[in-house]
Amino acid sequence: MEIKIGTFNLNNLFSRFNFAGAVDSPPSASEGGITLTFDEGSVKVRTFMGRLVKEKDPEETVTIARRIRQAMDVDVLGVQEVEHIEILKQFNRDYLGGGYDEIALIEGNDPRLIDVGLLSRLPVGAITSFQTSVHPDDPARRVFGRDLVRIEILGPDRQPLLVVYNTHMKSHYVPFHMDPVAGAAEANERRRRQAETIGAIIAATEGPDSRFVLLGDMNDPPGSPFLAPMIAFAGGTLVNSLADARETRPAKPETPGQGPGPASVNWTHRYNPPGPEFPHYEQYDQIWLSPALAPHLAAAFIDRRTRHGGDGSDHDPAWVVLDL
């Protein structure tokens, strides 16, 4: 049996509904839809750090859907930066043609309301959220700013096939009011604690012969020391399935004067810092395989963007083919 599993940061897949109001009974609708007008007192505008939270641009939504349908065409897709399960269901229905029968998402901890979720053509078993996990160095605070979810993937006969862990780790963003050096150190330490917690959870949950995948937006490259406790956990060492990934197309040449471009194909995120520094290319989006699952890796791919800013997302999606 061949199964394709991927990861894609959808970059703020928010809904367009940004109001609150009470309706006593369903209004009668003429052809063309319903328009509801609210008084000023019943309108709720949602903001984050002083900015209005708006729906994802429809053209960008079409673009990420096209990449999922045409480039990836995976059986199981872990996604990040999704507002809630309703918008993920709508995305599947309206943009993916209802191609995925199973949709999973549990609300996490992020103040920006971005969660991790999963789309699957295969049956799904138990779903476990570890959002309440804490690190011993700070037991009063939840360690995951978003979540770590464990989802059982079943075969067509509904027997256990493998397990997918999906997460979105602490970013490098430092708020403007913080010292940049101290802020960066704090973000790195938070990511290290998240990695330690993930490693501990996997060690306590999975056996030596367990077939599982850990994927998501790790916000650090595979060789980062802050991710090391997650990769080399108590039960073994995870295998980087994207180490020899192939691009769906060559990378767009770098802008003249902006450096040589990526050093290899192993990148999914491009960051162009202000000032004279050249753009950074990093493999933030990762798919790690358990030791028992790694021998089943048949191929790995990264769908390469056509624009430096990204096609519908500032992350490029990646996926693997497993021969089970």
UniProtKB/TrEMBL annotation:
Residues 244-271 are annotated as: Disordered. Keywords: Endonuclease, Exonuclease, Hydrolase, Nuclease. Pfam families: Exo_endo_phos. InterPro entries: Endo/exonu/phosph_ase_sf, Endo/exonuclease/phosphatase. Gene3D superfamilies: Endonuclease/exonuclease/phosphatase (3.60.10.10). The keyword Nuclease applies. One of its GO terms (molecular function) is exonuclease activity. Transmembrane segments: none annotated. Residues 56-315 form the Endonuclease/exonuclease/phosphatase domain. This is Endonuclease/exonuclease/phosphatase family protein.
